[in-house]
């Protein structure tokens, strides 16, 4: 307080000075008294005193009158650091962080350097705004003023860098800190754990021990949570074991943090040991522990453990029920999961967004796509708002059955709730549109995404690969390599699959070698399967067989299946029999192998062998998987089965088929009877061919959609040669674009031509 202003203060009633001092701390004082005090100060001429002005600023700030407080500050000819710090503190406390930075800038322009009281507030502001550059500048200012070694400034500076994700800068501050405590050390430990830096975690723990700082259970829980959330599951398990060896007693938070990692690592024995510990410590009544235990058993495929634990829990709690539904669905028990979900609804249990998302995801992952669509509708009717996890869980169901209308509606919903910036939502949309035959829309979604991770790139590559567009896939891969992202094994699977679709042998070999030589990715079974398919389609069956024999691990059914399918294309019986024998051993109850080998024999006119295969299937009780196709008409998905005569429109469908058949005969087309049973009359063979589900679906679409409307059909089996020829004709005859997605690829029929070039 200046000597010149002392006489003025003496003229101010002591009640006003006392009021200003007290109102800064007591919210019960009235704003009107602050205004009155301000008026008396102005009248007395004491407004230029820094001490009184600072108190007045603080008093206005207490009532959130920040504009008035700022006007007081601006009216001071030579404001002090104390005046500015009062307003900065108040604005920071009110979470008006941007305004705090503005006041700091004005303070700096007055030539005032922040002191040890202001710096912590400024660093807090930068942390909240993730304003790294401003924080760095303030750090530089603190170095000039010598305050960078102040304990409070260092602590707030450290947390600012941590919040801004600048681990390197945070570590430098940490290393220079004169007063480290367990809170600061724990923050750094958790950050390194989230990055999977096990060695750094161990190093800091060692430094803490040598400095006499003892890690507490909160520190350990933070480390475990960090490893788990970032997918470093083995590191989390190692750290849990270390905790136990050090004599700490893991609590419910510790157990709940490590169990997800145990489940993701499929370490069932470790999970059982933890289960025993949970029982011993009496933690089985904790809902978080029970949920984590059920989740662990679900990921480990231990169905009995899931059901047993759920039955032991007495309360119907949302988190536990969600884990139960997810565990059942993950292990293929989706019908049981649906049954339990309905039970939860009947019991008026409060089902949250996680509950609905869990059952929708379970249905979409287990072939219950129509049920998933219906549940998504019910969820919204129930007033539960889908989130960034629900949408990616729901969209695969739309793609699986080509429910384009539902997919577009879901896309529209994502736009309305501002979820398009989410990479998981974006990649799911890319995949959905590709599976619905609209690869151009996949490209548009990809182009509009502000941020793209590797999953987005892989989704786009896989979509174009599915459509047989190898050049586009290779172009996308080239663009990917120009980013900071590195391709993974999924990227190369899409590349090799695309090359196989169009027979690019040289390019396929190039990418196959590039995986290991340039990116250090060891080829997996799926990569060998793609290469066998590529070589086989190119007529290099012996080379494909040699590659199988050179594999560093045992080939699976996908690899041998690729060879068998290639033998069908090349009519090679000898290698087909070798591949089939391997498949009979690996999958003795898969009827597809028997049917494919039978077709190869039939193509060669080897009817005795065909009969032998059929007899073998009968003796084993195997039946050919019935053909099934799906088509969406007016936002409803219809299912058509091969040979099904019970369909409500079967008479109209048959009549339309007869019309098409006559037109085809006029143009010289004859049915390909190789794809029908050989031991029945020719007329019956033709009728059987016309009963294939994809033909029924296409004709159903012609009858129930306006002229010119594109048709989208999904088939559960590979499209046969006769159906392929018929649908090519229909696309020209009816003037329709027809998209057929079978188990191998997409077929885009237009004007009598198919995108596959009759090579599938």
What does this protein look like?
The chain has 760 residues and is mainly alpha-helical. Among the domains are: 136 residues, Tetratricopeptide repeat domain (Serine Threonine Protein Phosphatase 5, Tetratricopeptide repeat), CATH 1.25.40; 80 residues, Serine Threonine Protein Phosphatase 5, Tetratricopeptide repeat (Alpha Horseshoe), CATH 1.25.40; 125 residues, no CATH class. The chain contains 41 helices and 6 strands. The protein has a 6-stranded mixed sheet with strand order 2-1-3-4-5-6, with helices on one face. β4 and β5 form a beta hairpin. α4 packs antiparallel against α5, α10 packs parallel to α12 and α16 packs antiparallel against α17. The longest helix is centred in the C-terminal third of the chain and has 17 residues. 44% of the residues are buried.
Discrete helix count: 41
Query: Tell me, what is the CATH class of the domain at 180-315?
Result: Mainly Alpha
Q: Please give the number of β-strands.
A: 6
The CATH superfamily of the domain at 180-315 appears as: Tetratricopeptide repeat domain
Strand content: under 5%
Largest sheet: 6 strands, mixed
Measured between the Cα atoms of the first and last residue, the distance is 90 Å
Examine the secondary-structure arrangement and name the CATH architecture of the domain at 180-315.
Alpha Horseshoe
Low-pLDDT segments: 1-13, 23-28, 677-682
Helix amount, in percent? 55-70%
Mean pLDDT: 85
- Structure classification: mainly alpha
Walk across the major sheet and give the strand order: 2-1-3-4-5-6
Instruction: Predict the CATH topology of the domain at 180-315.
Output: Serine Threonine Protein Phosphatase 5, Tetratricopeptide repeat
